[in-house]
Amino acid sequence: MATLRQLEYLAAVVDTGSFTRAAEQLHVTQPALSHQVRALEASLGGPLLERLPRAVRLTPLGRAVLPHARAVLADAGRLHAAARRASGLAEAELEVATVHSVALGILPPVLRAWRARHPGVRIRLREYPHAELLRAATAAGRADLAVGPLPDDWDGPVRELGVEEFALVLPPDDPLAGAPGGTLPLAALADRDWVHYAPGHGLAEVLDAACARAGFTPRAAVRTEQTSAAPALAAAGLGPTLAPATILPPTLDAAVLRPDPPIRRTLTAYTRTRPDRLTTAFTDLLAARVRLGG
C-alpha cells in the first residue's frame, strides 16, 4: 500500500523535474528516494514516471495518480494542523481559495474582522482567475474552504452567501452616462468596443454570456488579466466594461449603471468534507459580513 512518504517523494520529483533536485529538497539520498518511488510503482501496478536523459515525465498512470496523491498529502497536512489547533500546541493556519474578484471586492473586510478576532490564526489565500480552476483546486485538496460562484455537481457541503450584482462602467462623459433610472440595456452598447477580460478569465465568460443574451458578441478594444484594471480602463474611456459591483472603488471617476435586465451570480462557501470548527467559524463570519442580495 502506498505511504505518505512515497506520495510526497512522487510529488517532489514531479515538481522539481528531477530525482536529484527532489532528493536535495527533501534532504534524502537519491538512491533512497528512487527506491521509494519504485516501491510505489510496484504497489500501484505500473510505472508512474518516464525517466528521460535530462528530465522525468509522468506516464498515463502517473497522470491519473498524481491528483489523488496531492489530495492525500493536503488532507494529511490539514489533519496535523487540526490536531495542533485542538491541542493548542501551535498557532493555526486556514487555507482559503477564491476567485480574483472575490479576493478583491469581498474578502478584505472579512479578513480584517477575522484578524481582529483571531490574531493567532494565519490565512493562506489562494486566488484563481476562473471558477472552474477554483473548483478543481478545492477538489484536489489545496484549500480548507473555497469562496466563489456556485460550483456545478459539487458533492461536499455548500453554503450560499448571497447574490453578487454586476455593474456597467463607462467614462463619466459618455453619452449614455445619464441613462434614465441609472439602468442601461446591454444592447445599447452593441456597437461599442469593450474593455474585456483575458481568455481563461472567469469574468470574460460572464461578459460574453451576458452580451450573447442581449443579441451580440462584444468586440474587445483591450483585454486585461487584472480584474481591478477593467473598471479603471473603462473610466479612462477605452470602452464600457462589466464588473462585479463589489470591486468598484468609491473613488472611481466613472458612470456606474445597472444592466437591464440585471446580471447576477450566486456566491457560496464550500468544502470537500464536513468543515472543522475553525473553518466553520470563518464561514459564519463571512456570511455575517458579506453584503450581497438574497
Overview of this structure, please?
This protein has 294 residues and is of the alpha/beta class. It has 3 domains: 4-72, Winged helix-like DNA-binding domain superfamily/Winged helix DNA-binding domain (Arc Repressor Mutant, subunit A, Orthogonal Bundle); 88-162 and 266-289, Periplasmic binding protein-like II (D-Maltodextrin-Binding Protein, domain 2), CATH 3.40.190; 166-264, 3-Layer(aba) Sandwich (D-Maltodextrin-Binding Protein, domain 2). Helix content is 41%, strand content 23%. The chain has helices spanning 4-16, 19-26, 30-44, 60-87, 100-105, 107-117, 131-139, 202-213, 229-235, 277-289, and strands at 49-51, 56-58, 92-99, 121-128, 145-149, 158-170, 183-184, 193-197, 219-224, 241-244, 255-259, 264-270. Strands 3, 4, 5, 6, 7, 10, 11 and 12 form an 8-stranded mixed β-sheet that branches. Strands 1-2 form a two-stranded antiparallel ribbon. The chain has a two-stranded parallel ribbon with strand order 8-9. Helix 1 (4-16) packs across helix 4, helix 2 (19-26) packs across helix 3 and helix 6 (107-117) crosses helix 10 (277-289). The mean pLDDT is 90. This is DNA-binding transcriptional LysR family regulator. One of its GO terms (molecular function) is DNA binding. InterPro entries: LysR_HTH_N (IPR000847), LysR_subst-bd (IPR005119), WH-like_DNA-bd_sf (IPR036388), WH_DNA-bd_sf (IPR036390). Residues 1-59 form the HTH lysR-type domain.
